[in-house]
Amino acid sequence: MDLRELIENGNKAAGTQAALAKAIGVTTQNIANAKAGRYGLPDYACFQLATLLKIDPAQVIAASALVTERNEERRKVFYPFVMGKTATIAALSLGLVILKMTPIDAEAALRLGINNGSIGIMSSLILAIMLIKFKDRLRQIGTKPIKLPAIRTPLA
Question: Looking at the chain, which terminus has fewer C-beta neighbours within 10 angstroms, N or C?
Answer without folding.
Answer: C
